[in-house]
Give the backbone structure.
Amino acid sequence: MSGDGAVRGFLLPDLGEGLTEAEILTWLVAVGDTVAVDQPVAEVETAKAAVEVPCPFAGTVAALHGAPGDSVAVGAPLISIDTAPSGAAAQFTEPGAVVPAARPATGAEPAGAGNGRSAAHGARQGSGAVLVGYGTGEGARGRQGRRRRSRAAEGPRTTASAAPSAPPAQARGDLRTPVVSPLVRRLARQHGIDVTALAGSGGSGLVLRRDVEAAVAAGRVPAPDPAPAGAQDGGERIPLRGARRTAAERLARSRREIPEATVWVDADASGLLDLRATLNAADPARPVGILALIARFCLLGLRRYPSLNARVDSGRSELVRFAHVNLGFAAQTPRGLVVPVLRGAHALTTRELAAELNRATARAREGTLPPGDLTGGTFTVNNYGVFGVDGSAAIINHPEAAIVGVGRIVKRPWVVGDLVAVRPVVELTLAFDHRVCDGEEAGGFLRFVADCVERPGIALGDL
């Protein structure tokens, strides 16, 4: 925060490990609005996730530093707030009592009305928010759940001074766009749809994906530019942003810095499929997938071959081995490839591991994973078999030391004893940093995982 006099500039905070900027998705306030301590003022999208940014002090919005679609660097001004008593604090006489403010009419309600806490009280107490998107007393809740609860608690809205000639967007008491998911906003932006003009079909008027798609189908889309930007250069130019930009930078860095090698092996997946069927028949309410089982085998393998659960500290010429396993797994989302991380995965049971994989995958696709759940991995598993391919030499997720890849399971001829039979076969690959171990250890790890796939009972010796 910086600023002179009563106007204070709120600088974009550090939103997570390794993040240097964020793209403004939408403003939740407008110039002239009154905000309370820890009230979200903007929703931004980082390379990791879409999050709401709360303002740490109360007052009247003096300036917005950027428009939706603009990128703001960490440490750069995001919003300026006039904290003078005549702005925010003077309009509250006691908690819960609202007096119309003497400021230019915008039709926006004073933030905090009916919530039992005045802006003046908030300014005296100061901000307690320590995580992006969460206020002092709310804890780690989902953004949409918090938004719905806060609306229900506000009660009747009170406006400052109504301006009959004000446009509808300014006459609303709540300037937040009633959209369920950041992905819905992105879809609307891609098609040039103004979500504030849509009547949401969800609860409390929330705009859902089907509402945007209906608007597109109804022809409420600007005519496409006949000459896309960059077409004169022989091709369309598409900016790398968000998750795609981060993935591009990380993969390029991995190729530059890590001397990787790849080993692979085919395995008879009959035992793996039998194990999955047995587990799911025993408890259908908590299904276990192929990825969860192979991840479990990898976790067991890392006990025997800990060098693969490590990273190289080039500055000190040291190998850093971890006693814990923060398991990353590649997930394809509408925003691009991301790698959610399950912290302490080594301590989870197989069913807990499966449940966490499903939860994190769903939230990654919705764009609601917090930045902390997308950083800090120590080992990664990539199931590219879901794309219908047999094998791939995956790129290591820098700065980790290894990544296991799983191809599709397909029936092939397989030698069983002295006979040829048809068996479901899967190809497993391991890309590893040759600085952390040699081929013997890498091959031993992958062979152990393959043996567990073929004969899952082997894993019992490591449980």
Remarks:
- Residues 350-366 form the longest helix (17 residues).
- The CA atoms of residues 141 and 185 lie 21 Å apart.
- The domain at 242-462 is CATH 3.30.559.10 (Chloramphenicol Acetyltransferase).
- The chain has ten helices and 21 strands.
